[in-house]
Task: structure prediction
Amino acid sequence: MRRGATVMLARAALLLGLLAAWEAGGRAANPLLTVPPSAVLPALWDLVRLRSYPDLAASLLLTLREIAAAYGLAVLAGLGCGFTLAFNRLVGRAYGPILAALYAVPAVVWYPSLMLFFGLDAASKIAFGFLLGFFPVTLAVLAGIRQVNPQLVIVARSYGAGPLTVFARVMVPAMLFTLVGGLRTGLALSVIGVIVGEILGSKAGMGALINHAYGLLRTADYVALVLVTLVLVVGSDVVASLAERRARRWTE
Result:
C-alpha cells in the first residue's frame, strides 16, 4: 500500500509541476499561440456544454464509429493473414519478409494515396486506421505461433488430440499474451490512424474540429479539443490494458 501511495504521490507531483510550468509559460508567451491551463478550463467547460462546438457529440460519435470499423477490419484481416502465414510455410517464407518490410515504411506516406482513392469522407480514415492496425496484429500472430513449444504439440498429438484441440488447448494459451499485446498495439495505432487522418484531411470528426480551431487561432478551444481526444485515446488503451492483464493472469 505504501509503495502504491508513493507512486501516486510522485505522479501527482509530476502533473502539478507540469501544470505549473505550463501556466507560467502560457502567460509569458504569445496568447495566440499558447494558452495557460487557467484559460483552457473555461474553454473546456464551454466545449463540454456544447456551446463552442454544438456538433461535438456527433463528431465524437463519428470518430468512434470510424475507429471501431478500422480496428474490426484490422483484427479480422490481421488474424486471417497471420494464421495463413504461420501455418503455411511456403506462404510464410515468401510473404513474411515483405510484410515486415512494409511495416517498416512510415505509414503516413500511404495516406495521400488513400485520400485520393477514397476521398475526404470516412472511408479514407477507416482505411488509414486499418492500415496502421493491421500489421501489429498480423506480426503478433506470427510471433505468438513461433514461440509455441513444439514438444507440447507433439505430446498432445501423441495422446490423440486433434488439430482443433491442439490449437485451442496448447497453442492459444501459449501465444495468448503475445497476441493480446499485438491487439492492444493495433487498437492504439488504429485510433491514432483515424484521428491523424481526420486532421490531415476531413470534413467531419474530432480531427476536423481540431483543424478548425487551429486554423482560426482559437487556441483555447484547440487545446480543449485535443484534451477530449486525448481522453478518447487513453480510454481505449486502458480498456486494452485490462484485457492484457487478464490474458497474463490466464497464461500464468
